[in-house]
Amino acid sequence: MDNLAKVIPFRPSVTVVERQVADIDDGYTRIANGLLEAVMAADLTARQLKVVLAVIRKTYGFGKKFDRITNTQIAAMTGIHHTHVCKAKNEMIAMNIIVTNGLAIGVNKVISDWNFIISQVGKSLAKSANKTLAESANADKPTQLNTKETIQKKERKDPPKSPKGECDGLEEKPVSNKTPIDYQAVLSAYNTTLGDRLPQAEALNDKRRRAIKRLLTELKEPTVEAVENYFAAFAERAPKFYFGENDRGWRASFDYLLRSDTLLKTREKAL
User: Fold this and answer.
1) Taking the model in full, what pTM does it have?
2) 263: number of CA atoms within 13 Å, CB side?
3) Among 138, 97, 93, 90, CA closest to 114
4) Which residues contact 83 (CB under 8 A, 6 or more apart)?
């Protein structure tokens, strides 16, 4: 009797992908065409573009002009690390594309006030081509772009600088006695970054001003942006214990984060 092998047909596994369809019945964002076109034409990096679209979604998407939007919220929406969100947001605040209203932020709809040269294509071309080709390309731009606002922007030689303070460093750097301190901005940075998870800081007093001044001397840069970076690092590294998940219900506070030992623990990831 011959030995017969049994052949079992192989059926490759099939991954079922759910079909997703965007529909205005699920909600939509009402935005002026001029503002949307200005965002499209703006000389923004990929991160800046994602951040400004997130701000639009969180404001105009809910029928608001301003809203309190934390870096961690934008990070969750865009997939960008919150420190990079911080940097991109501050750059656009410097360019007057994003504006603040107390603790809230929003997009500046007065696009003539945007403080940078809208020439993404021209800038790339100038880097890769020779001088003659770059000049020729600039000469062939449509005349309708040569408005009063763009002419004024082209006359500036130096683009605006982004705010000081990197979003990835907490090293110590002395602060000059002549450096003005915006105490209220530090308090607002805490409320914006951590106010949705920790108690809100309502007011300043002499003790808090002294603590803020000392804190600035212990950071890499004596700026509000550097303070916000520290607050964001605490939000990322601190265990749930600091946010109320303990047997006492204790939570960290603005005063707790102003302490030197809290900064040191955050820097050394020893929380």
Assistant:
1) 0.45
2) 23
3) 97
4) 71, 167, 168, 229, 232, 233
Pairwise CA distance, residues 82 & 23, whole Å = 29
Cβ-based neighbour number of residue 56 at 10 Å: 17
Is residue 52 a contact partner of residue 69, using CB atoms and an 8 Å limit?
no
Other beta carbons within 10 Å of 31: 16
How many residues can be counted in the chain?
271
Q: What are phi and psi of 40, to 5 degrees?
A: -65, -35
Tokens representing 79 are 């997939």
List beta partners, residue 100.
Answer: 105
**pLDDT band for position 87 (50/70/90)?**
confident
Quote the DSSP letter at residue 165. S
CA 181 remoteness from chain centre: 22
Topology of domain 29-113, per CATH? Arc Repressor Mutant, subunit A (1.10.10)
Residues 46 and 23: their CA atoms lie apart, in Å, by 25
Is residue 102 left, alpha or beta, with left meaning phi > 0 and alpha meaning psi from -120 to 50? left
Q: How far apart are CA 133 and CA 154, in angstroms?
A: 18
Q: What is the pLDDT of residues 111-127, one digit of tens each?
A: 999 986 543 433 443 34
Q: What's the token pair of residue 44?
A: 């923004």
- CATH 1.10.10.10 in the chain is located at 29-113
Per the model's pLDDT, the better-predicted residue between 114 and 16 turns out to be: 114
**Which residue, chain included where needed, has tokens 């204790």?**
250
